[in-house]
Fold this sequence. Notes:
The complex is a heterodimer.
Chain A: E1 4-6, E2 11-14, E3 19-25, E4 33-38, E5 45-50, E6 54-58, E7 61-66, E8 71-76, E9 85-91, E10 96-97, E11 101-106
Chain B: E1 4-7, E2 10-13, E3 19-25, E4 31-37, E5 43-51, E6 54-57, E7 64-66, E8 76-78, E9 87-94, E10 104-105, E11 109-113
Amino acid sequence: QKEVEQxxxxxxxxxxxxxxxxxxxxxxxxxxxxxxxxxxxxxxELIMFIYSNGDKEDGRFTAQLNKASQxxxxxxxxxxxxxxxxxxxxxxxxxxxxxxTRLTVKP
Amino acid sequence: DGGITQSPKYLFRKEGQNVTLxxxxxxxxxxxxxxxxxxxxxxxxxxYSQIVNDFQKGDIAEGYSVSREKKESFPLTVTSAQKNPTAxxxxxxxxxxxxDSxxxxxxxTRLTVT
Lengths: 107, 114
């Protein structure tokens, strides 16, 4: 079975720091990658998607994709307490999600 | 406003009863999905549908059934055969059934079976 793996955390960073979230995948043919944010008790919402190797930036968020090493990461710059949530990685070939990484940003 | 509506938000049932969760979208999306989420866990795919009158099993389809008679609707029935049905159920849709199509989620239904 194709797998998507994330460190479950929890990951704790101080306010203003950079939070780094990682995701690895097993299917070398994967072509599209998505990061979703899920607040406690709520449904996931799309943050970013990336299709090509390299970096993609959107405000304080940067997605990084390395197909050769089969990982995709999400960097959150200037982390805020409102960023505290679970971050889910999805590989879109077959709509599978990683288990998610719980991030806590401490004031 | 366009979106995905799941109802009800909370649902309580006795063990042995079938229950149907509603999912309606007015986004004109082709593809629809059902996921299950257990506390502290990720999302697991139950069923998905890429087009009306067609659907495929996901990773944990046993004990569940779906229908896709209309583009807008993708109801999920949790049958008595599902051994541990208590969970948070999420419905999602995407504009097209392609690998580059992001998901839009409904607000979810929390099902408790006692």
